Amino acid sequence: MKRLVLLRHAKSSNKSLAATDHERPLKGRGRRDAPVIGLRIVQRGWDPDTVLCSSAARAVETWERLGIDAPCAIVPALYHASGTGLIDHLRGLGDSIDTAMAIGHNPGWEDAVEQLSGEETRMTTCNAALLESTEDSWDAAFGGKWTLVTVLRPRPPRG
Questions:
Q1: pLDDT tens, 87-140?
Q2: CB 144 within 8 Å of CB 135
Q3: How far apart, in Å, are the Cα atoms of 124 and each of 16, 84, 157?
Q4: Residue 131 lies inside a defined structural domain of this protein
Q5: pLDDT category of residue 14 using cuts at 50, 70 and 90
Q6: Does residue 140 lie within any of the structural domains?
Q7: What is the CATH number of the domain that holds 128?
């Protein structure tokens, strides 16, 4: 079985003095939400064997605040990755890895959830989609259908 955690970065600051979108940091809410989601992922037993993270400052800061102990590769191509682009990066994972996490951005992460599971899912900031495949290899898993187990959110939805 292969498991995949697709995590959208935590809430970033739109009022930052960062020179580019790529450099925008997290805002206070994002800094508070990231450890909450990290704890929920670990409590469910979904802590990853490896992490691929967008190079955007807000994604890297989200990773740093999760409190999860796993090797992390910063992947610049995940910054504007489409759902297909994200899946292409994940195809290269070694089969000794059972649970992988990718930290990045919308619309790519919502697109990837839909491409893999067939389910439309709204992923607001710091949401983690937990997906499962019954396959034993990543190549076979990405050739088949995934089950969306749940979407973890740092707080209950409004309304």
A1: 988 888 988 999 999 999 999 999 999 999 999 999 999 999 999 999 999 999
A2: yes
A3: 20, 20, 10
A4: yes
A5: confident
A6: yes
A7: 3.40.50.1240
Reported as a single tens digit per residue, the pLDDT across 20-61 is: 778 888 999 999 999 999 999 999 999 999 999 999 999 999
Angle at 17 between CA 16 and CA 19, to 5 degrees: 115
CA 46 to chain centre: 12
In a domain, 115, yes or no: yes
> What is the number of structural domains in the chain?
1
pLDDT (tens digit per residue) in 137-151: 999 999 999 999 999
Question: In Å, what is the CA distance from 45 to each residue of 5, 30, 41, 49?
Answer: 11, 23, 7, 11
Residue 157 is assigned to a structural domain of this protein: no
pTM beyond cutoff 0.90: yes
d(CA 148, CA 159): 23
Host domain of residue 35: 2-152
